What does this fold into?
Amino acid sequence: MILASLIRIFGLTCVAALALLLSVSRTTLAQEDEPGDQELAGLYALTEVPESLDPIKFPLWEWTGHQVTQYLAGELLKRMGYNVEYIHTAEIPSVPAIQEGALHVSLEYWVGNNRVKFFKATQRGGGAEDLGYLGIKAVEGWWYPAYMEATCPGLPDWHALNECVEQFATGETAPLGRAVDAPAEWITYNDKRVESLALKYELVRSGGEGGLITEIQSAYARKAPVMLAYFWSPHWIFAKYDLRKVDLPAYKPQCWDDPSWGVNPDATHDCDFAIQEIKKLVWTGVRDKWPAAHRFLRNFEITNETQNSLVLKIDVEGRDIESVVAEWIDGNEDTWYWWIKDALLNPGQ
It folds into this structure.
């Protein structure tokens, strides 16, 4: 832990921290045979980090969660001695830029949004590498406030939606329940889902993320019924409010194109949302140009709870992303120290 403390407390690069340790304990290392000393000696032998002074370029996409993930990894790479550059850009042009090496790392790629593009990019000769799962569990679906279970005890079972339809109805939708959906340009397939599951609900389009959040905040302030036909996790809203997901029939690929599959033998989309995979996408050249960074990025992971709590501080409390990320890094050395240690011991693997 001495190495990590020097990096954290004094802001030293990994190379400088190791050099300082060696100057203090060079004779001791030759005399003692404690595991910690052996570890420091082994780490010192790998002081070629950073292998290149060129900046590792991290695109920052439109949503705060992606930016938090990028900053966490980028700031830790800086502590290892690497130069890191953040570039605000859109998601769509970033993928070919990563394939070409103009950008280098996007750690939060929602594969289900464009599975074909991800597959082509990460195949041999595609220019990008799949570094595995980020750790975030992506969940899309129908959601309601936890307090609704007191008056609609059948929840979260989806059959309870029709049993409690009166509670979710409004003057504008009665006798149908009101379910707040995403904007029309967001493809949720809820119109088909409502029809195939015979749900007695009218879908009311929101204006976007802000509109969905307003629905939640307004309902909680009044302890009023609200049914969201679309929301997703990770999101800071779950760090502030207790929202529960409706248990719709489990998703299977056949659900979307085989009417005979599922609870309704005459319709498709009679199931939950497709399962999202969130993976780490990097330029294939990272392994050769920055081997220890490549190993660190392979090790790096984040949970829904961590991202939700950090985004809450930024989007709701109004703090800047740099201070929020620095605070997390300073308070979670036991998590990231091992990512760095392993990266120094196994660069490029």
Q: What stands out?
A: The chain has three domains: 1-47, 48-134+279-345, 139-256. Residues 1-47 form one domain.
